[in-house]
Structures are given as C-alpha cells and as structure tokens.
Specification:
globular
C-alpha cells in the first residue's frame, strides 16, 4: 500500500504539527487511520506507533464522546489516500505530545512515595 510507504518516515520522525483542539470527528478519523496503519504497515516500528496511537484515541473517545456520536462519525469517516499519511502523522504526534506531557507527572508522583 503506497500510503504506508509515505507514512512510515513521517510517523517515525514526528514531522506533522498536531491540532491544538480536536473534535469527536477528528478523534474518530485518527482512530480509524491508526487502525488501518496498525494492520497494514510493513515495518514493525510503524505498526507499534500506529497501535499506540489507536489506544490513545480509543481512550479519548471513551472519555469524551457518546457511543452514538462515535458510531455516526465512523460511518461518516472517509480516508483520502492523498492525505492519509500526513493525517496519520499528525494523529501520532498528538498522542506522543500527550504522553510527553502526562507521563512525567506520574513519574514525579511515584518518586515522592
């Protein structure tokens, strides 16, 4: 799949800029894209990034959207092969940004005990 060939370098380098605010539609698109990339990536590193991204967006949607809204957005989601790679990179970078922000807080709390 050509999408994967272009996405892998971007996923590994974190080239794209993440969106500051994301809607349920944005999160669903990232969930769907990361699921596709997790299944179809040829490189293990890209599969790992996509799988972690999928888990991140699954959690975001679980915490912030109703099942009806998620279902409607999944049905409305269309993946454009021309932009899928860049969009997936943006989704992965957003997940990585959250991890860089949140994980040190937990680590600091663990050191205080």
């Amino acid at each position: 799949m050509k999408i994967i060939a272009f996405a892998v370098p971007a996923l590994l380098l974190g080239v794209a800029t993440p969106a500051a605010t994301q809607t349920v539609a944005d999160d669903v698109q990232c969930l769907v894209l990361s699921g596709v990339f997790a299944k179809s990536a040829s490189q293990e590193a890209a599969k790992l990034v996509a799988s972690r991204t999928l888990i991140f967006y699954l959690g975001r949607l679980d915490a912030g959207a109703t099942s009806g809204a998620i279902k409607n957005q999944i049905q409305a989601t269309k993946i454009d092969p021309k932009t899928a790679s860049a969009r997936m990179s943006s989704c992965a970078q957003r997940a990585e940004q959250a991890a860089r922000t949140i994980l040190p807080i937990g680590e600091a709390q663990g050191q205080k005990r």
